[in-house]
Amino acid sequence: MQITGEQALAHLTAQDSDTLNLTQTDHEQIALDDLFAALDDHIADTNLMHIALTINGGVTEGGTTLTLETNVINLPQRYTNQLNKLIWPDKTDYEVNLYMIIENPEVSQSQLKIALASSVAAYVDDPESVKQKISTWFDTQFQAILTQQAADASAED
After folding, report:
1. Among 26, 42, 50, 91, which residue is least crowded by beta carbons within 10 Å?
2. Domain total of the chain
3. Pairing relation of β-strands 64-71 and 97-103?
4. What is the pTM for the complete model shown?
5. What is the mean pLDDT of residues 70-79?
6. In the prediction, which pLDDT does 147 show?
């Protein structure tokens, strides 16, 4: 799926992304089924998409936020100032991609990690392999968070 720079900027400026927020209360089992169901419902929409799963209150409350977003550049949609500088309005063929974002104080100094899951077109062609990639990436990131938290807890003892 491709959009123009002008369309991408219009969606970001108007903040008219399809947005869905899901909540989970513990870290034991990441419930990605609801995240994937919402992804399947909105992946082909002409609007950009933002689906977030907050665990233990999300990153703003010391928990974790897992997000799937469609965008033309690998920055979260909320970074509108930076995106406005990077997206050229005259460009007519931006590829819309699906990005995986994890936010937690343990993932990096900026509390954020982002990675490309696939293009929207590749997801539409083979959703199961992209879902597997997303599951594996979130699980790897989540395990790193738990390992760091355990190391931090043992260092305090």
Report:
1. 26
2. 1
3. antiparallel
4. 0.88
5. 92
6. 86
Tokens read off for 15: 């903040």
Sign for the CA dihedral angle at 112, 82, 87, 67 comes to positive
SS3 per-residue string spanning the chain: CEECHHHHHHHHHHCCCEEEEEEECCCCCCCHHHHHHHHHHHCCCCCCEEEEEEECCCHHHCCEEEEEEEECCCCCCCCHHHHHHHCCCCCCCEECEEEEEEECCCCCCCCEEEEEEEEHHHHHHCHHHHHHHHHHHHHHHHHHHHHHHHHHHHHHC
* pLDDT tens figures, 84-134: 999 999 999 999 999 999 999 888 888 899 999 999 999 999 999 999 999
26-60 pLDDT per residue, tens? 656 677 888 899 899 988 888 888 888 888 877 88
Angle between helices 32-42 and 127-156 (to 10 degrees): 140
Domain holding 118, by residue range, is 2-154
Distance CA 127, CA 155 (A): 42
Q: How far apart are CA 66 and CA 103, in angstroms?
A: 7
Q: Give the count of beta carbons closer than 10 Å to the beta carbon of residue 139.
A: 12
Dihedral sign (CA 56, 61, 64, 70): positive
pLDDT value of position 16: 63
